[in-house]
Amino acid sequence: MSALSVIEQRLLKWDKLASLVPKPKKPLFPIDRLNELLKACANSSYLRTGESIHAHLIVTNQSSTAKDVYQTTSLINLYVKCRETVRARKVFDLMPERNVVSWCAMMKGYQNSGFDFEVLKLFKSMVFSGESRPNEFVATVVFKSCSSSGRIEEGKQFHGCFLKSGLMSHEFVRNTLVYMYSLCSGNGEAIRVLDDLPYCDLSVFSSALSGYLECGAFKEGAEVLRRMAKEDLVWDNITYLSCLRLCSNLRDLNLARQIHSRMVRFGFNSEVEACGAIINMYGKCGKVLYAQRVFDNTHAQNIVLNTTIMDAYFQDKSFEEALNLFSKMDTKEVPPNEYTFAISLNSIAELSLLKHGDLLHGLVLKSGYRNHVMVGNALVNMYAKSGSIEDARKAFSGMTFRDIVTWNTMICGFSHHGLGREGLEAFDRMMIAGEIPNRITFIGVLQACSHVGFVEQGLYYFNQLMKKFDVQPDLQHYTCIVGLLSKAGMFKDAEDFMRTAPIEWDVVAWRALLNACYVRRNFSLGKKVAEYAIYKYPNDSGVYVLLSNIHAKSREWEGVAKVRSLMNNRGVKKEPGVSWIGIRNQTHVFLAEENQHPEITLIYAKIKEVLSKIRPLGYSPDVAGVFHDVDEEQREDNLSYHSEKLAVAYGLMKTPENSPLYVTKNVRICDDCHSAIKLISKISKRYIVIRDSNRFHHFRDGQCSCCDYW
């Protein structure tokens, strides 16, 4: 049976396929019919049917003659659209003669498969062969490949070639050219190309704006927007969305309001996609109430809009509001997606609400989103920041797929909990897995080295490994080294490092050095550092408090009074201590010397009870660290009712025996509370976790994971 008979037998199966082909007005030759079917096979990815046609062409000797370039090009088109690039290239190489369509089809196949370098090689071969002159379609493919591969220098050469060929008058060629320059150069080259063009339409401006947005050149993007606004052009929805994205990245509220006004004026603000972009824009610009108004005026509610307004509140650090929005969602009508769960879990992480996180984890499992990398990362982050590093480890181990964010979250989680060795082990496993570390990775690694005192190893990571992976150290990395050296008591090295580092230090670095001076009792250096830091940053309350503590530890009450007077004169206020604890899915918040809680009398009685029990174990109120110069009894009372003690006492009252307590505090835990809670964990046989502004403290059996350094 001939191949042609096989084709005829399959015509019944091709009824649906043939419906795609325009009906001819007059009968076609069989070969023309096959060419049309090849085209339909390519568009529908019917590879096996196309192979049958190819077999027929071979048998009838119609695939290798010069006059049959058209059908051979159709075969190339078939194979490239069916992702059979190697077979397409074999057919291409066997062609005795090629036209520009053949070359373009093969280039397009390489481009769709991600082989941009092969596209450029093939174009050079085309030029050197002299078989065909490039047309506008070839130019478009070449410029796109230059954009995708970042080969701007070759792109400039091709620009000259196509300019000589007179192809720059075509709209698509201009668009891809401008996009290439804006994406790959990241500077004003695309703008200069715009200036050289005789006429710029909306598509050219949109291409330049898209390229600058993708490469992060937002200032140049704003310049393109300014020039586009001067032209008498009618913007479309895509242009408005690009402009909104630009405003979001620039955090430019004034520009954002102008774009929004224009959208309202021309009626582009009612579509769901546009509303989502406007909500996101106002959220990024720090105007969450504006975003809420847009959300409230949107009639068509869907999961994208709900998630976008949640993200706006998350960006504004209004984590409770983000969770409130999630709780109000009708999950049956608008089921949450992976982005919704990620925002909710990260909001819980920032509030350290472990019980709420457990409930949401159950909903994630029920909804089937557990294997999404984004949700898995959020789960690891939630457990790590809520105090349960073991649950974070389990969530990490249970992930099927991991990315760099996963590893960074786990490494930084270990470091935040003071588990430096575990953090470094995770880093080693990440390297074995073939993941490339970035700047966040090295922040976690350097903090891990600081916690375990690995000075030499930390300096090796900073001086050698970061260079190897082309990670440029920034202020956070330099601050980690200051903490590493000063925590190890190497104050001379820390001073020399800060003096010679090619960076301008901020108040965080000076506080790190000052805190080390306080913990290591190097009060003379601490006073010098504090004086300089106060001179440079007169409004930072943390420096004043640390200096006051240094004077108090030295019993220099006159120095304490001077610091307090200086703060009053400059209007600097110490941030009040606030602690909170979650019990039975309800969060209880405490301030120092709290008297508003409905059970405050019982809480005070519980504090007196536990303090009386730990005194025989060696507890003595650390009155030297009290900020105010008052009598001894008053200082002891002030210490007794710090917010973390109130939260721990309430937890002891309201939770079952032997159950763990998780407390969060907004500022550094004081020395007295740290000593007291160590002993409370011993007499109560409780595991107590406190997260302060510096790190996590795990209290168990009279010991703390920080080894009394924080």
TrEMBL record:
Keywords assigned by UniProt, alphabetized: Repeat
Pfam families registered for this protein in UniProt: DYW_deaminase, E_motif, PPR, PPR_2, PPR_3
GO molecular function: RNA binding; zinc ion binding
Domain of life according to the entry: Eukaryota
Domain DYW, chain residue ranges per copy: 618-710
InterPro entries linked: DYW_dom, E_motif, PPR_At4g14850-like_plant, PPR_rpt, TPR-like_helical_dom_sf
First and last residues of every PPR repeat: 201-235, 302-336, 403-437
Gene Ontology biological-process entries: RNA modification
Protein family (similarity comment): Belongs to the PPR family. PCMP-H subfamily.
Protein name (record): DYW domain-containing protein
Organism: Arabidopsis arenosa (Sand rock-cress)
